[in-house]
Amino acid sequence: MSTLSTILLSIVLTTAIILLFAYVIGLLMPASHIVSRTSKFEMAPTELWSILVDVARYPTWQPKIKKVTIEDAEAKQDTVVFVEHSSRNRHTIFVHHEREPNRCLVRILEERLNSQRMKKVPTFSGSWTFELSQEREEEKKMTMLKITEQGVIQQPIVRFTHLLFFGFHRRLDRFMHDLHVLVDQRANNKSEATAVEEQEGETSKSLFESVLETSDHNHGQAVDDPTSVYQQVETNDVYSSALQSTLSLGEPKAANEKDWDFMSEIYERTQ
C-alpha cells in the first residue's frame, strides 16, 4: 500500500513540476508574435480575392470549420463581422475589413472556447493581413499571396505549448494548405471542362466533314455516271409519251360530235 501511494505521489509531483516549469517558461516568453507565410497561386488576383471575401463558403473548403455565422454584414460596405465555429470546440470572432479591393485585406480575430465566457481572457487574439500581388505583369494568372499574423497569447501555458508543439504559424499553414487544395480543384475542373468542349468540337467538326464528303461523293457520282443520266432521260420520255396519249383520248370524241351535227343537218334538208 505504501508503495502505491509513493508512486501516485510521485506522479502528482512530477505533473505539478512540469506545469510549473511550463508556466514559468511561458511567463518569460513574449505574449505577442509576428509570423507570415507567402505562397503563389495560379489564379488571377480578382478570382483569389473573391474566394477570400466569400466567408459564407469557408466551411466548404476548410475541413476544420463546421459553420460560419455572419453577425453584421451591413454596418459598412467594406466591413463584415462573422464567427467561425471549428470542430475543436472553439469559435473565432472576425472583423473583416477590406482596405484596398483585390490587393489588401485585414481581419481582427479573437479565439475562444465555446464554453468560455466573454469576460475571460481569450486563448488567442490578433490580426491577419492579406496582401495580393502579381509576380509579373505578363503573368496575369499568377498571384502572390502573403498573410501576416500579429497575435497575442496571454495565457503562459498556451504560449509554451504553441512554442513547443504547434508553432505560431500553424493557423497560417492550415489556411494556405486548404486554399491550395481549392485552387487546384478548380483548375482541374476547368481543364476537364475545356477538354470536354474541345472533344465535342472535334466530334462535330469530323461529323460535318464526313457529311460534306458524302455529299460531294454523291454529286460526283451523279455527274460522272452517264447511265444514270440516260435512265433519267428515258424516264422523262416515258412520262411525256404517257401524257400525250392521255390528251389524245379526247380528240375522237370531238370529231364524232362534229360528224353527228353534219348528219343531222343533211337529214333536216331532205325533209
Q: From the helix content, strand content and strand pairing, which structural class follows?
A: alpha+beta
Strand content: 25-35%
Radius of gyration over all CA atoms, rounded: 46 Å
Strand tally, please?
7
The span between the termini is 170 Å
Structural key phrases:
single chain; 271 residues; 55% helix; 27% strand; alpha+beta
SSE topology sketch:
Layout: H1 2-28, E1 32-42, H2 45-53, H3 58-61, E2 65-76, E3 79-86, E4 90-100, E5 104-113, E6 124-134, E7 142-152, H4 156-166, H5 170-224, H6 226-248, H7 251-270
Antiparallel strand pairs: 1-7, 2-3, 3-4, 4-5, 5-6, 6-7
Helix pairs in contact: 1-4
Structure characterization notes:
The protein has 271 residues and is of the alpha+beta class. The protein has seven helices and seven strands; from the N terminus they run αβααββββββαααα. The protein has a seven-stranded antiparallel beta sheet with strand order 1-7-6-5-4-3-2, with helices on one face. β6 and β7 (142-152) form a beta hairpin. α1 crosses α4. The longest helix has 55 residues, at 170-224. It is elongated and about 105 Å long.
What's this, in brief?
With 271 residues, this protein is α+β, with helices and mostly antiparallel strands.
